[in-house]
Structure formats: C-alpha cells, structure tokens
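Appendix B. Chain record.
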Amino acid sequence: MEFLILSSCLVNQRKREHIIMQAVIEAAENLGITRIIKRRCNVLSTGVYLVDQKGKKLLYNDWEKDWSQKKIYERIVSSLKFLNQKGGKNHEIILTIS
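Structure tokens predicted for this chain:
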C-alpha cells in the first residue's frame, strides 16, 4: 500500500504542494504507510491517492481549496477510514435517465 500524489505540470503551485506533501507524510507516518510517490502530470490540481492491490482510490483533491495541513491530513485519514468501513465491497450507483 502506498500514497500517490499527482501534481500539475501545467500550473506552478509549489506552496500548496508543500502543504499537501506535509499532510501526506504525517498521515503515512501515523498509518504505517512506508511509500509515497509524487509525479507531475497533466492534471489541473493536486490529488492524493491510495494505491493497493485493488487499484487507485482518490483520497483528496485540492481543486479550489485553500485548506491547512491539518485539515488535509484529517480528510486523508477520514477517507481511509471510510474505505476500510466499506470492507472492499464494490458499491455501485446506477443512474437511469429515460
């Protein structure tokens, strides 16, 4: 299990990236996750993902947010708790428009 941080190569947001990275490091230390990968790619905002055997799950997206390190950390931890409560079940919502 690892954290994956995707940050924008299109927009320079070094200060936000630093705040997010500190929150991810704190979460990783407290949750026992030993690997953090950071990549620059064609995204508009920084996102934090959990990568495991089942795939990649979004934990936090920084789009139009100016959250503190503490609030980002809390969101990451609460997202992980929610994923654990789901028990790995694949819940689907089907929307039918007729």
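Further analysis of this model is presented in Appendix C.
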